[in-house]
Amino acid sequence: MSRRCELTGVGPLVGHNVSHSNIKTKRRFLPALATTTLQSEALGQSFRLRITNGALRTLDFRGGLDVFLMKAKDEELSPRALKIKKQVKAKLATQAA
User: What would you measure as the largest C-alpha separation in the chain, in angstroms?
Assistant: First the structure.
């Protein structure tokens, strides 16, 4: 399983551990991922996604999964999140018509 957020696309970063004597060794900064169950109001069902804690806070701020997905760029979303976005978009289009 990849260490990448399914909604924001945030992944591991590379940096250095720097000792007191200024010796640099490579290390990885892993994102704080959490497996959460998110409710889609338009579809009326819940989805289990592996997202960062920052993405979870952004979801709460923007008003839920549906609003977040509509504003998100397709390049950042995982294939599962893209599938959910297409379903939500289709459902909202049928409700508006």
Answer: 67
Domain range for 65 is: 13-92
Phi/psi of residue 30, nearest 5 degrees: -90, 145
Whole-number Å distance between alpha carbons of 49 and 80: 9
CA distance 40 to 38: 7
Q: Where are the alpha helices (DSSP H) in 1-74?
A: 53-62, 65-71
pTM for the whole thing? 0.85
Over the chain (97 residues), what is each successive 10-residue block's mean pLDDT?
92 98 98 96 95 96 95 94 96 87
Question: How far, in Å, CA of 39 to CA of 45, rounded?
Answer: 6
CATH code of the domain covering residue 20: 2.30.170.40
